[in-house]
Design goal:
Layout lengths: L2 E7 L7 H19 L5 E3 L15 E6 L1 H9 L10 E3 L3 E2 L5 E8 L6 H11 L3 H12 L7 E5 L6 E8 L21 E4 L1
Antiparallel strand pairs: 1-3, 1-4, 1-5, 2-3, 6-8, 6-9, 7-8
């Protein structure tokens, strides 16, 4: 992970930033899927946490090797969004950058589909499963998220993103097709 690309959302009076970031991230997910890219990671440098302030921010940073990032940007995945974003060139990571893991976090949000799955797995009624899930679902989630649609089920869901603690050394590993990883780090600067 020696290079990166910053994609910044432009202010748009017709679309809120959260909606634009969701569209941008969904397009990136599709492009990573088509490239079968397990070596490209993402981060959100302007993210904020807190129940009332949580947001991924207006900048998506894509991390990877120079050749892989050029291959990604050679694809037409930004078609229709070019006028809504500003893209940097493929740029080397600054010397002395820290590192951190950026991963997906899943929470019980009390959704009916989660209750149905719980009911099937634990052989209880859907009503009982929903009641069991209501208490944990009342928690306040402070992490930023992006609303996207699942490529496999078509359902919309909130993809919660956690930026782990800073680390002095990088850790290698694979990234999901969302650009997230439980063990691989991205440069943080």
């Amino acid at each position: 992970m020696d290079h990166y690309i910053d994609i910044r959302l432009r202010a748009d009076p017709d679309f809120p930033p959260a909606m634009l970031m969701g569209a941008l991230y969904a397009r990136l997910h599709r492009a990573l899927f088509e490239l079968e890219a397990e070596d490209i990671g993402v981060s959100f440098p302007d993210y904020r946490t807190g129940v009332k302030a949580r947001t991924p921010g207006a900048r998506l940073r894509i991390h990877g090797e120079k050749g892989r990032l050029k291959a990604l940007m050679a694809r037409a995945w930004l078609t229709g969004l070019r006028e809504l974003v500003e893209c940097s060139d493929v740029t080397p990571v600054p010397a002395g950058a820290s590192h951190r893991i950026v991963k997906r976090r899943q929470f019980n949000t009390g959704s009916p589909s989660r209750a149905r799955r719980y009911a099937r797995r634990h052989d209880v009624s859907e009503t009982e499963a929903q009641q069991l899930m209501n208490a944990p679902a009342q928690r306040r989630i402070e992490l930023p998220f992006v609303q996207i649609s699942s490529r496999s089920t078509g359902e919309r869901f909130a993809l919660f993103i956690e930026h782990g603690p800073l680390q002095s050394q990088p850790a290698s590993g694979h990234f999901t097709l969302y650009g997230l990883s439980r063990n691989a780090t991205i440069p943080w600067f």
